[in-house]
Design a protein that fits this description.
- This is Peptidase M14 carboxypeptidase A domain-containing protein.
- The protein has one domain (5-265): 3-Layer(aba) Sandwich (Aminopeptidase).
- The chain has helices at residues 5-13, 59-66, 68-77, 90-95, 141-151, 185-191, 222-228, 245-265, and strands at 20-29, 32-41, 45-51, 80-85, 111-116, 119-121, 132-135, 158-165, 172-178, 196-197, 214-215, 233-240.
- It contains eight helices and twelve strands.
- The N and C termini lie far apart (39 Å).
- The protein is α/β, with parallel strands linked by helices and 270 residues long.
- The chain is globular.
- The strands form two sheets. Strands 1, 2, 3, 4, 8, 9, 10, 11 and 12 form a nine-stranded mixed β-sheet that branches.
Length: 270
């Protein structure tokens, strides 16, 4: 479903009373210039939240734009700083399309893996070996812009990327996670009161959830980038696009609060 990015931007700018609102870049799509926003709230330890890589997955940007004040209050009570990138693909968000208006795939161009000498891949299976990984500089402008801005700051204590699954029918949730699974299981159990958790089942041709609804997959995404950067708590949360929006908001907020709590534990840079 298309959304008005101008209205979204107005709402984000209105949060200047709660956070430092920066335009970290502007991108031109279809003759329209779009500002890309970072909202920053200082704290002792940091959580990075990203969302809106795919334009037909609106719940994450909407959660962050409608519920940012309560997120800030929860983080401040725990001394956690926030760097929030609420909508990374504005033309896709506005058009309701997965990719940007130029048809570029924004999500998986943070890293490349050398699997054999001279052979490079953007994704590796869980048990697949590789020789090395490198940062990839050839992706779409939105990817390059957000990665450049993220890299300006020390690695956070936790990083959460909010997505939706536009392919699985019905109201469901699952997550790609790395690190101590025990930290994420309570979040998924809490989410199960709002949508069915996909457990021990395939979500696509490559990935199958475990009994908790969790998957580990190195796919060249921002989550993969944070893993390779040594961030101890990282996840990409999924609700299906057929999940009622209020249920998606509830699940997103469960994970946002949970990741604020994980960041408060420490383990990352201050």
């Amino acid at each position: 479903m298309p959304h008005n990015y101008q209205e979204f931007a107005r709402r984000i700018r209105d949060y200047s009373r709660l956070a430092e609102v920066n335009e970290y870049a502007r991108v031109l799509e279809g003759g329209v210039e779009y500002p890309l926003f970072r909202l920053t709230v200082p704290g002792d330890r940091w959580l990075v939240i990203t969302s809106g890589f795919h334009g037909e997955e609106p719940a994450g940007p909407l959660t962050l734009s409608w519920h940012f004040e309560e997120i800030v209050l929860y983080a401040r009570e725990r001394g956690v700083g926030l760097r929030v990138y609420p909508c990374i693909n504005p033309s896709g968000f506005e058009d309701g399309t997965r990719y940007n208006r130029s048809g570029e795939k924004i999500n998986n161009d943070f890293l490349r893996y050398e699997t054999t000498p001279g052979t490079w891949k953007g994704e590796v299976q869980r048990d697949e070996s590789f020789l090395r990984w490198v940062l990839f500089d050839g992706g779409p402008k939105e990817t390059r812009a957000v990665r450049s801005d993220i890299a300006r700051h020390p690695a956070p204590a936790a990083a959460l990327d909010i997505h939706q699954d536009n392919y699985i029918p019905g109201a469901h949730t699952y997550a790609y996670t790395f690190g101590d699974k025990a930290a994420f299981v309570p979040l998924m159990e809490a989410a199960s009161t709002h949508a069915h958790v996909i457990r021990d089942d395939k979500v696509d041709e490559h990935n199958r959830t475990d009994r908790h609804g969790l998957i580990e997959y190195h796919d060249g995404s921002v989550t993969d980038y944070f893993v390779r950067s040594g961030v101890p708590y990282t996840a990409a949360l999924e609700t299906t696009t057929q999940t009622p929006l209020e249920a998606s908001h509830a699940i997103n907020l469960i994970w946002v609060r949970g990741f604020i709590d994980l960041a408060a534990r420490g383990g990352g840079s201050t």
